[in-house]
Design goal:
There is one protein chain. With 515 residues, this protein is α/β, with parallel strands linked by helices. The protein folds into 5 domains: 9-147, Ubiquitin-like (UB roll), CATH 3.10.20.370; 155-322, Nucleotidyltransferase, domain 5 (2-Layer Sandwich), CATH 3.30.420.10; 328-365, no CATH class; 376-433; 456-510, Nucleotidyltransferase, domain 5, CATH 3.30.420.10. The chain is 36% helix and 23% strand. It contains 18 helices and 19 strands. The protein has helices at residues 9-15, 70-84, 86-91, 102-106, 113-122, 138-147, 198-215, 228-235, 243-256, 273-282, 305-311, 328-336, 343-353, 378-390, 399-408, 416-426, 428-433, 495-510, and strands spanning 28-35, 38-47, 50-60, 94-98, 127-131, 158-167, 172-179, 185-192, 220-225, 261-266, 293-298, 317-322, 356-359, 362-365, 373-375, 411-412, 456-461, 473-479, 485-490. The strands form 4 sheets. A 7-stranded mixed sheet has the order 10-9-6-7-8-11-12. A 5-stranded mixed sheet has the order 3-2-1-4-5, sandwiched between helices. It has a 4-stranded mixed sheet with strand order 13-14-15-16. The N and C termini lie far apart (103 Å). Keywords: Endonuclease, Hydrolase, Nuclease, Nucleotidyltransferase, RNA-directed DNA polymerase, Transferase. InterPro entries: DNA/RNA_pol_sf (IPR043502), Integrase_cat-core (IPR001584), Integrase_H2C2 (IPR041588), RNaseH-like_sf (IPR012337), RNaseH_domain (IPR002156), RNaseH_sf (IPR036397), RT_RNaseH (IPR041373). Residues 446-515 form the Integrase catalytic domain. Residues 155-284 form the RNase H type-1 domain.
Length: 515
């Protein structure tokens, strides 16, 4: 259904009679929608009340694209149209009519990486975003999107979810592992900011897992848990007698109605080790800073149905995709006032946070005579160091000079000097072209014996603890040149035994020494 983009207006007007003629002053309206497994866009010309189509494009969603949110799919449709219809977008003002807050999302600096990238790419065109009303050409865009795509919708395939809960005297947490039909894994470690028993943590795991997998676009779910109580109550084999368990069970049945098909099965803990490790991770203070996970925190129990209805809140957890680093406790204290339960750690964070400030979610370090220094996480450290060290303006300076340069550029992290030394030591050009000192580490000493085994030194050691054969002494001879050692244990010292040792161990083996 696609047609090639003409290189000039004359070729465009002569190509097909069905095309509508345009001039450089014509306002072109582009309508886009995204439904099912494809996104589509229709470029139309507005003449009074008439909407005449100029061009239409469509794209099948592949790989991770079907899991995009509706607003991201809409932005993807706009990007596809802008790339394929570049001459139109460059020579005309294009008005995008949509019922989504696309304008605010593209202008949001805290949006995802792909949205920021798309916003920069679209900024070169004169695009105007307006609210969509009743449009005749919208039916054409809907039709293209519906008829384009694969009948085997990936959202209709079965998703797999492994959940586990962990409850300790310190805090509780849940671990969730979601496996998509394309074998992509999503790992979540959710800290429960409220007291919860082991059974309550298991219920929280399955409930929060249902929310997350539904947000990912799953319609058919096969969930696994090691809790016999949760699975049996969900299947109706066990009766929920406690009031909390009744609320959790009612909430679970409510969440499962959102799916076309939902199965919950009990399996041994050995088969859900990944979810078990995430649950233990969320319920402890020992976080692995090098592991990339999605850390969330649940502020209140999911089973508190009355509170949710009163507050009108559907989401009970907040968080972001991050790696726990040295900035995490400081940001949580400055932004949310959250401190560890350990009084010593809380005091350290309070004292340390006085030298930092949080601006628009970014952490900065205060200085006495310098501007604010932006605090970097470990995943950005190597890039900044390499850019300063060997970038377009880099001069492969030493480690201390490199650390000071990064500081003058407005960046800070606690291990700047250590990381700079590590980078310089691994830099191949620095190692090849460095000035090395070939002087010995210590002053050279004149050898008393220039030849091996020409001069020996002898000594005796004893008394020693008695060994086999009543041997309590040791006679030792060392060569001055090679430091070769000859030793033999003796029961008693005597002239004959010493002469025998010299004859057998020195003269017979190395020849007659000079001294």
């Amino acid at each position: 259904m696609e047609r090639g983009v003409p290189k000039s207006i004359r070729k465009f007007e002569r190509s097909v009679e069905k095309y509508v003629s345009v001039d450089k002053t014509t306002e072109v309206v582009r309508i886009s929608v995204c439904v099912r497994g494809a996104v589509s866009a229709v470029l139309v010309k507005v003449e009074g009340r008439e909407h005449q189509p100029l061009y239409y494009v469509s794209k099948i969603l592949q790989e991770a694209e079907p899991r995009y949110s509706p607003i991201e799919k809409l932005a993807l449709a706009l990007i596809v149209a802008a790339r394929k219809l570049r001459p139109y977008f460059q020579s005309h003002q294009v008005t995008v009519l949509t019922n989504q807050p696309l304008k605010h999302i593209l202008a949001n600096p805290n949006a995802s990486g792909r949205m920021i990238k798309w916003a920069v790419e679209l900024s070169e065109y004169g695009i105007v975003l307006e609210e969509r009303l009743a449009i005749k050409a919208q039916a054409l865009a809907d039709f293209i999107s519906e008829v384009t795509g694969n009948e085997d919708n990936k959202h209709q395939q079965e998703w797999t979810m492994f959940v586990d809960g962990s409850s300790t005297s310190f805090k509780s947490g849940v671990g969730i592992v979601i496996k998509s039909p394309e074998a992509d894994y999503l790992e979540y470690a959710i800290t429960l900011e409220f007291p919860a028993s082991n059974n309550e943590a298991e219920y929280e795991a399955i409930l929060l897992g249902c929310k997350l997998i539904h947000a990912a676009g799953a319609r058919k779910v096969h969930a696994y848990s090691d809790s016999q109580l949760v699975v049996s109550q969900a299947e109706g084999d066990y009766e929920a007698r406690q009031e909390k368990m009744k609320k959790y069970l009612a909430k679970l049945r409510e969440e499962t109605t959102k799916f076309e098909e939902f199965r919950l099965e009990q399996i041994p803990r050995e088969q859900i080790l990944m979810a078990d490790q995430l649950a233990k991770l969320a319920s402890s203070n020992q976080f692995d800073g090098g592991r990339r996970i999605t850390l969330l925190s649940a502020a209140k129990p999911t089973g508190s149905l009355e509170e949710e209805k009163e507050k009108g809140s559907e989401s009970v957890f907040v968080g972001e995709n991050l790696t726990l680093t040295w900035t995490t406790p400081i940001i949580r204290f400055l932004g949310e006032g959250v401190l560890p339960e350990d009084s010593k750690e809380a005091g350290k964070i309070k004292l340390r946070s006085a030298r930092f400030i949080l601006i628009d979610g970014n952490l900065y370090k205060r200085g006495f005579s310098s501007p604010l220094l932006k605090c970097l996480n470990p995943d950005r450290v190597e890039y900044i160091l390499r850019e300063v060290h060997e970038g377009s303006c880099g001069n492969h300076s030493g480690a201390r000079s490199l650390a000071r340069k990064v500081l003058r550029q407005g960046y800070y992290w606690p291990t700047m000097m250590k990381d700079a030394f590590s980078l310089v030591q691994k830099c191949s050009p620095c190692q090849r072209h460095a000035n090395y000192q070939h002087n010995p580490a210590a002053y050279m000493k004149t050898l008393e014996s220039p030849c091996s085994f020409d001069m020996w030194g002898m000594n005796t050691v004893g008394k020693l603890p008695r060994a086999t054969g009543q041997k309590e002494y040791l006679i030792v001879a060392i060569d001055y040149f090679t430091k070769w050692v000859e030793a033999e244990p003796l029961a008693k010292f005597g002239e004959k035994k010493v002469m025998k040792f010299i004859w057998q161990n020195i003269i017979c083996r190395f020849g007659i020494p000079e001294s």
